[in-house]
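Predict structure. Input: Homoserine O-acetyltransferase, 376 residues.
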Amino acid sequence: MLTTPSSLDQRFGLSRHVVLPGPLRLDGGALLAPVEIAYETYGTLAPDGGNALLICHALTGDHHVASAHPRTGKPGWWQRMVGPGRPIDTDRFFVVCANVLGSCMGSSGPASGDAATGRPYAMAFPVITIRDMVRAQALLLDHLGVARLAAVVGGSMGGMQALSWAATFPDRLDACLVIASTARHTAQNIAFHEVGRQAIMADPNWSGGDYYDGAPPAAGLAVARMAAHITYLSEAGLTEKFGRRLQAREQKSFGFDADFQVESYLRHQGLAFTDRFDANSYLYITRAMDYFDLAEEHGGLLAHAFRAARARFCLVSFDTDWLYPTAESRSIVQALVAARAPASFVELSSPYGHDAFLLDSPELDRVIGGFLGTGA
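Output follows.
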């Protein structure tokens, strides 16, 4: 078992990497050993261990929740939410955020070395599920000496993990906050992901996933990111920001160059993504999201997933989120009510679509601070 600090945020964050012996039994039947997990912690664990809070990140997120990303130098993806005196108050909570299983930011995934071959796993990495990600997080918390969580918080795919925590380890958490998420993917969700996967696999550099000694399938990954990014926005937000405005004349040329500003924006998003993410990880994680069906895991009835839950729940949706619309959150709340679990729900108004939970939102700050009792 090895734990090494990789970087220290000058204010309050510590980034670490741990190698746990495992094995971790996956839903697909495979045993994964060892299990590597990259994570960050903020604040101090109370002597009784009762102030731990787990943040679960979304598909393209990472564990750098409130400190600068080491590759891009950009602020943490939820830095406005996590810190001293903020809604997720690190003066009160010991905050943990772990890079998910299957990712490429230090946790075990397709780019990790396979001890049996000495080469990256590539597509030989075992299939993973959201519940597998949660089990890996539980191993990390065991390693950290955290037996019970004051809360689990997550948005989008992070919300799926939070729900899976409540269903898989009902005795290990006191509160569950789910933002802009769903209990299962719709056919439309799966279809958008499949377009992205096919873009990656159609890139000549993908080479069946065995590209780590050469050029990565950057073009395919960029297209996948562009397609997905559209689903994170709203029509009103795109119209307000770009409309049908053309590029400045000196930047524009007719044909297949980026004539419209929105085209240029999407291309920038796609290219920037390839600098920090692995194409095979994108394949594995999107597939894990598509497999996720909390009701199916519990006999086909969503309420059964929460029968043993001891936590109180809060569900948050946004009125312009068409990726995981409010109806998805309402169905979860109905299942919680049927399971007699304490639940609150709020739909917030925002022009920014699914990504609203990542952007400045005083209303969301108040909801989170109120639910966690920080009053921020």
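The longest strand covers residues 13-20.
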